[in-house]
Amino acid sequence: MHKLYHKFRGYCYFILHFLFFIILFSGVSEVLESRPLPPKVRFNILLATSEAVTNVLKHATEGQMSLYMDGDFLRIFVSDNGSGIDLSELPRTTLMAGYSTKHSAGWGFTLLLKTMDRIFLSTGPRGTTIVLEINLVDTHEKVATNNITALKEERVHYA
């Protein structure tokens, strides 16, 4: 019976996750459709957003997402009510590719750093908020120069 419960719970998680992403992508896509963007940039924004939202599903019981256009900048706010990122783990969690404190590949922040212009992070015992920021005007340069070796610590801003 215990195995059946976990299997059912896993299926429910998958279905909820899938439905959430359909809603998420329709909202983000609607904002992106108002701009002529290269397909790779559009894909990268959706990928980064899904990574941030996946962390909410993994580490919290509630979360929210908001999108804002400020001139040419798209800002995506994702927050949750999880226990936050342990401060002793923060540098490794955000800057070390492949590092994870959970059962995952640990490439989430690396992916965010690669696809976004700036990331703002606030974390504590009441939850985590991450703001993803990308300038939608300089997108053609991003497609040409987005290289994982160009990651730099100054692109992460801790609040």
Description of the structure:
The chain has 159 residues and is α+β, with helices and mostly antiparallel strands. It is 46% helix and 22% strand. The chain is built from 5 helices and 5 strands, in the order H-H-E-E-H-H-E-E-H-E. The protein has helices at 2-32, 39-59, 90-95, 108-115, 139-145, and strands at 63-70, 73-80, 118-124, 127-135, 156-158. A 5-stranded mixed β-sheet has the order 1-2-4-3-5, with helices on one face. It is globular. The termini are far apart. Mean pLDDT is 75; it is low at 144-154.
Number of strands: 5
Q: What is the string of SSEs from the N terminus onward?
A: HHEEHHEEHE
Radius of gyration, in angstroms, nearest whole number: 16 Å
Number of helices: 5
Low-confidence region ranges: 144-154
Percent helix among the residues? 40-55%
Strand order of the largest sheet: 1-2-4-3-5
Calculate the mean pLDDT score and round it: 75
Oligomer: single chain
Largest sheet: 5 strands, mixed
